[in-house]
Amino acid sequence: MSENENISLLELLDNIIDRINGLRSMFIYLIIGSLILSPAAIILSLIVIFHPLILLLLIRQQPLLAWILLSASIGTMLLSFITLYFSLKEYKFFTKWSKRYCNYLSRKEKLEEELKKENLL
User: Fold this and answer.
1) What confidence tens digit (pLDDT) does each residue in 27-62 have?
2) How remote is the C-alpha of 114 from its chain's centroid?
3) Rounded to 5 degrees, what are φ and ψ at 119?
4) How far apart are CA 28 and CA 33, in angstroms?
5) Rounded to an integer, what distance in angstroms lies between the CA atom of residue 97 and that of residue 25?
6) Which residue in 113, 79, 97, 74 sits closest to 27, CA to CA?
7) What residue spans define the domains of the chain?
């Protein structure tokens, strides 16, 4: 039998929690990048949409290009709002993660000590 077949459900969950904790810093960097880039994309899209000269000059010279630029700006703005929403949601989750992970580790250590005292581990 291989080593993976002998892993209990609690050990598997413990490995998953440790893995998430290890990847937490990468997620935080991605979230911070998204929190910076999403508002920048929204602002740039709003400038393209509402600036009086950009679309007016394009409509006169290249109407198809103007419609493509307008629809791309609207799509970018919508995707940026969605990204911003999920980034804020995940940021709240990961800011609470450290406290919960420390609580989990202390409970795990207490449980292991109790099991060792009773010779069950």
Assistant:
1) 999 999 999 999 999 999 999 999 888 888 988 999
2) 37
3) 55, 35
4) 9
5) 11
6) 97
7) 15-95
State the residue for tokens 């609580």.
Answer: 103
- CB-CB contact of 38 with 9 (8 Å): no
Residue that is written with structure tokens 């000590």 in the block:
113
Token pair belonging to 7: 């892993």
- Structure-block tokens of residue 19: 């893995």
Residue keyed to tokens 């450290």: 98
What stretches in the chain show pLDDT beneath 70?
1-5, 121
This prediction has a pTM of 0.72
Q: What is the 3-class SS of the chain, one letter each residue? A: CCHHHHCCHHHHHHHHHHHHHHHHHHHHHHHHHHHHHHHHHHHHHHHHHHCHHHHHHHHHHCHHHHHHHHHHHHHHHHHHHHHHHHHHHHHHHHHHHHHHHHHHHHHHHHHHHHHHHCCCC
